[in-house]
Amino acid sequence: MFSPQGPSLRELAVQALSSVERGYDLLAPKFDHTPFRTPAALLDATAEALRPLGPFGRGLDVCCGTGAGLRVLGPLCREQVTGVDFSAGMLEQARRAHPHAEWVRADARALPVAGPFTESFDLAVTFGALGHFLPAERPALFAGVRRALRPGGLFAFPLITPPPVGSAWYWALSGFDLVMRVRNAVWRPPFVMYYGTSRLGALREELTAAGFTMTTVPLTALGRRADGLARGRLVLARRPGRS
Q1: Sign of the CA dihedral 15, 93, 232, 133?
Q2: CATH code of the domain in which 132 resides
């Protein structure tokens, strides 16, 4: 799963016993050589689904990590692209890889209420980050993203279709979540990363409560499962325009 340039087992263990912020600071120099980086196929499928809705003006990558989302935002946005993350280590890697973009260190649960995070962006995206937020924290995240978007702006993110109940992947992901819950019950600081807390129904309720109108489209470029379901969907949460 890891290339020779990726982290060692010991480095992963140290990261897993750290806080989310400190863990990603430690992992940052080798993050792009791990399977945790958002796959290019998922980024490209997202860009393909968004392309008919654009072009867009300013773009925002929420929880940007090392900047993989620039693969989507760069071609779609005609103006400045900004990434925001609370890990200084991940932002350092993003700046090196994409010096033309703007990188801001901030907690996505408490985005600044002034400056560039108030009605400034036309498109916001996030990739692979929702599992780092407890359900009780997502309302603040979604409220901040809505505030950062201009009226009519779009918040988009992909969701992988959950595996069938009882399948090997179902038990693997459920087992991972269980291990994380046990880890966080007995060890401090907590490391929040859960696969089973970002279900579409709950996200729809939370995004609607935050003032978005939400639809989804299948990510057909990812293919379909044996049961015919698309392997992923793109959530499209629109901030209503001014009346």
Answers
A1: positive
A2: 3.40.50.150
* Residues of the domain holding 69: 38-162+199-238
Asked whether the beta carbons of 124 and 155 are under 8 A apart, the reply is yes
Residue 70 lies in a domain: yes
Q: How far apart are CA 218 and CA 30, in angstroms?
A: 32
Q: What are phi and psi of 170, to 5 degrees?
A: -60, -45
Residue 18 lies in a domain: no
> What pTM was computed for the model?
0.92
How many domains are there within the chain?
Answer: 1
Whether 23 is covered by a domain: the verdict is no
- The two tokens of residue 125 are 């995206």
d(CA 154, CA 146): 9
Q: Is residue 1 part of a domain?
A: no
**C-alpha 10 chain-centroid distance:** 26
Instruction: Output the CA torsion sign for 222, 162, 43, 25.
Output: negative
Over its length of 243 residues, how does the chain's per-residue pLDDT go in tens digits?
456 666 677 777 777 767 788 888 888 888 878 888 899 999 999 999 999 998 999 999 999 999 999 999 999 999 999 999 999 999 999 999 999 999 999 999 999 887 789 999 999 999 989 999 999 999 999 999 999 999 999 999 999 998 888 899 889 999 989 998 998 899 888 888 888 888 999 999 999 999 999 999 999 999 998 888 899 999 999 999 865
